[in-house]
Design goal:
Layout (H helix, E strand, L loop, with lengths): L5 H6 L10 H10 L4 E4 L12 H18 L24 H12 L4 E4 L14 H6 L1
Antiparallel strand pairs: 1-2
Length: 134
C-alpha cells in the first residue's frame, strides 16, 4: 500500500497526465469505494456521462416533467439534471464513458471525487492559523 488511506493508496502511484491509464485509475477508485466524477478539462464542471441516446431520452423526460408542473409554459431549453448525478459507480461502464468523453473534450480530462458518496470530508485551510484552529 502506497498511502495510509483509500485516496492515497489509489492515486499515490497514478502518473499524472496519462489519458490511456485513466479508465484503470477510475476503476481502481470505484473498487476502493470512491465515487469519481469526470470533469471538463481545465474546469471543475462535471461532464454528462450519458450516451447521446440516453441524454436525449433524459432531456425529453425532464421536459415532460417541466410541462406537467408548468402547463402554461413551454419547455424550451429544459434538460436533464447533470453534474454530480453522473458519478461513476460501475467499473464495467468506465472505458466506454472515458472514450466518449475524450472524443468530445480531448484526452486531458479532470477527475473529481463526490465526497458524500465516498464518505469523505474536505476542509479548506489556507493559512497556518486556520490549520492549527482546525
Amino acid at each position: 500500500m502506497i498511502g495510509s488511506d483509500q485516496l492515497a493508496s489509489v492515486l499515490g502511484a497514478a502518473p499524472a497526465g496519462d489519458p490511456e491509464r485513466l479508465p484503470n485509475i477510475l476503476r481502481a477508485m470505484i473498487r476502493a469505494g470512491l465515487s469519481p466524477i469526470i470533469m471538463k478539462p481545465g474546469t471543475k464542471h462535471p461532464i454528462c456521462t450519458l450516451s447521446t441516446a440516453a441524454a436525449k431520452k433524459a432531456d425529453l423526460e425532464a421536459q415532460a416533467a417541466y410541462i406537467a408542473d408548468h402547463p402554461e409554459r413551454q419547455a424550451n431549453g429544459v434538460t436533464h439534471a447533470c453534474g454530480l448525478k453522473h458519478v461513476l459507480d460501475d467499473p464495467g461502464k468506465v472505458s466506454a464513458i472515458v472514450k466518449r468523453a475524450q472524443q468530445t473534450y480531448g484526452p486531458d480530462l479532470n477527475v473529481g471525487i463526490h465526497l458524500g458518496r465516498s464518505r469523505m470530508i474536505a476542509v479548506d485551510v489556507d493559512t497556518p492559523i486556520e490549520r492549527s484552529e482546525f
